[in-house]
Amino acid sequence: MDDHAPASGHATTAWAAFAGCSLIWGSTFLVISIGNDALPPLWAVALRLALAAALQAAIVAALGQRFPRGAALGAAAGYGFLNMGLSMTLLYWAELSVPSGLVAVLYGSIPLSTALFARAVGLERLVPLKVAGAVVALAGVTSIVAGRFAGTLEVLPVLAAVVAATCAAASGVVLKRGPRQAPLPANAVASAVGAVVAVTASLLAGEPHPLPRTAASLGPVLYLAVAGSLGAFGLYAWLVNHWPVTRISFISVVVPVVALSLGVAFRGERLGRPEVLGAGLVMLGLALALASDRLRPLAAPRP
Questions:
Q1: What residues contact residue 168 under an 8 Å CB cut-off, 6+ apart?
Q2: Using CB atoms within 10 A as the burial measure, which of 109, 199, 233, 300 is most buried?
Q3: What is the pLDDT of residue 151?
């Protein structure tokens, strides 16, 4: 189908998937930070992804779906290596030292990175209005964090978060370039590949490997595996089949706004002028990006 034209049969579903990803991932940064208090971070990634892979594989088998092969398998594995392997392990490790809200803001660079990656491989054109939207949205998430995280931060964890965001941006392009495939089988493969990367990283780091036995350790693993990996990543993989990756990437600039809103609703946090201004800029950037999709000529449908 056409990646740019909003086909009536998928428009509402696509926007619901976009909203679902934004809401779930808006909460995961906080849950990861909480989970890091109970389990070693890289081991926590491995447990989350192993559980997610097992659940996804069971559902795939129950539905009678086929696992990807050939080029599709390569795309799913590359997506898993970059997003669930490298990106997640770096993200969890970074949150040992960097506040979860700041990490979410650093992920706001994804739309710009995605646009550049997509252009570099000839997947999508570099649309000026969409790039402008990404810059405006990035300014918005920067405004959100202004004043909240004053003080000295360790350089390496911040760099790790930036690299994690870059890997996440590249992963969407890798999956998009491959053959179109069903979300669940693709994510089962990706989660399994990511689990192997995380276990390897945990062993190399010399972490202990306790099994989660308390609510504090088990709760985050279950939530992140079911809601984060099975739910949000499944919605993301579905979106890749129906939307341009540059549009999907704007999930990452909505996420900090969602995270702040959850803080206000459930933790009694108060919003200052930088946060209100930042939220407005994020919405403006998103509007510019979506307007660019409507103004550009329709691309040829994907086979």
A1: 82, 83, 87, 107, 110, 252
A2: 233
A3: 54
